[in-house]
Amino acid sequence: MSIQVGSSVRTSHRSECVINQTLEVLGDQWTLLVIRDIVFVNRRHFRELLTKSLEGVASNILADRLRKLVQQGIITKSDDPTHKQKAIYSLTEKGIALVPLLLEMAAWGHEYLPESELCGLARTLKEGGPEMRAEFMNELRKAHLPASG
Question: Which candidate among 20, 35, 89, 139 keeps its CA 20 to 30 Å from the CA of 145?
């Protein structure tokens, strides 16, 4: 398996531990936030992800993370049919499969970080239980996967 590290692709891992290997893909301070914005706020264009990020990601960091996510098969990049100079980012099945992880992270943070809030869609999905989460993931498939929509 190849892992994107900076501008090069590494074909080995620090260890065979599945947690380590997952962190090699997702474990920087921006990647999951980019995925969060695509999943929960439906930000699908570079400019939206850049200017509407609550955390203020820099354009070069955002470009790098989007490229990495495409290389890892978590999102795809395609031409936006409504605007010739824009690209649209879509989740793959691999990306949609991250929804339970994001929801568990949100629930853990809400429980153990006193300054955090569980709001909006994350709260609704937590309160709605497994059926609502499954329905949400199916809606993401319809919106993001070409064969499903």
Answer: 20
Question: pLDDT digits over 115-124, tens only?
Answer: 777 677 877 8
Confidence (pLDDT) at 118:
65
Check residue 146 and give its pLDDT: 82
From the number of C-beta atoms within 10 Å of its C-beta (0-12, 13-18, 19+), residue 65 rates as buried
Closest CA to 95 of 29, 149, 143: 143
**Pairing of the two strands 3-5 and 8-10:** antiparallel
Residue 125 confidence class, pLDDT cut points 50, 70, 90: confident
- The beta strand positions in the chain, using DSSP E, are 3-5, 8-10, 75-79, 87-91
Considering all CA atoms of the chain, what is the largest pairwise distance in Å, rounded to the nearest integer? 45
First to last CA, the chain: 30
